[in-house]
Amino acid sequence: MTPIAFTLIVTGVLLNACAQLLLKAGTNAVGHFEFSRANLLPIALRLGTQWPIVGGLACYVVSVVVWIMALSRVDVSLAYPMLSLGYVVNAIAAYYLFGEALTMQRLLGIGIVLVGVYVLART
């Protein structure tokens, strides 16, 4: 894998992870809500005016462009599993940003993902 392809993959992964974290921040600001006919429009307006939600959606748009560029350089069978690095980034970032738990079971899962990506990247 070339350095440019690797950079594109990592950038795509980080943009995707950033999008998830921004969406979570936006929903935290809105709070728990239920979808129903009565509150569909008010909830949509509340979500649509949260800058983290808008930023998260923008990150997704940019990540798709970056991902398409990566796929033009790397086999999808190699690139797609690299997206699992986003699980690692999100788990660690959620711990620091949102106080989410990093239990031993989650840490073990993160370790397994990292080993899998390492094995995959060496082939």
UniProtKB/TrEMBL annotation:
<keyword id="KW-0472">Membrane</keyword>
<feature type="transmembrane region" description="Helical">
    <location>
        <begin position="104"/>
        <end position="121"/>
    </location>
</feature>
<keyword id="KW-0812">Transmembrane</keyword>
<keyword id="KW-0997">Cell inner membrane</keyword>
<dbReference type="InterPro" id="IPR037185">
    <property type="entry name" value="EmrE-like"/>
</dbReference>
<dbReference type="Pfam" id="PF00892">
    <property type="entry name" value="EamA"/>
</dbReference>
<protein>
    <submittedName>
        <fullName>SMR family transporter</fullName>
    </submittedName>
</protein>
<keyword id="KW-0448">Lipopolysaccharide biosynthesis</keyword>
<keyword id="KW-0441">Lipid A biosynthesis</keyword>
<dbReference type="InterPro" id="IPR000390">
    <property type="entry name" value="Small_drug/metabolite_transptr"/>
</dbReference>
<keyword id="KW-0444">Lipid biosynthesis</keyword>
<feature type="transmembrane region" description="Helical">
    <location>
        <begin position="51"/>
        <end position="71"/>
    </location>
</feature>
<keyword id="KW-1003">Cell membrane</keyword>
<feature type="domain" description="EamA">
    <location>
        <begin position="50"/>
        <end position="120"/>
    </location>
</feature>
<keyword id="KW-0443">Lipid metabolism</keyword>
<dbReference type="InterPro" id="IPR000620">
    <property type="entry name" value="EamA_dom"/>
</dbReference>
<keyword id="KW-1133">Transmembrane helix</keyword>
<feature type="transmembrane region" description="Helical">
    <location>
        <begin position="78"/>
        <end position="98"/>
    </location>
</feature>
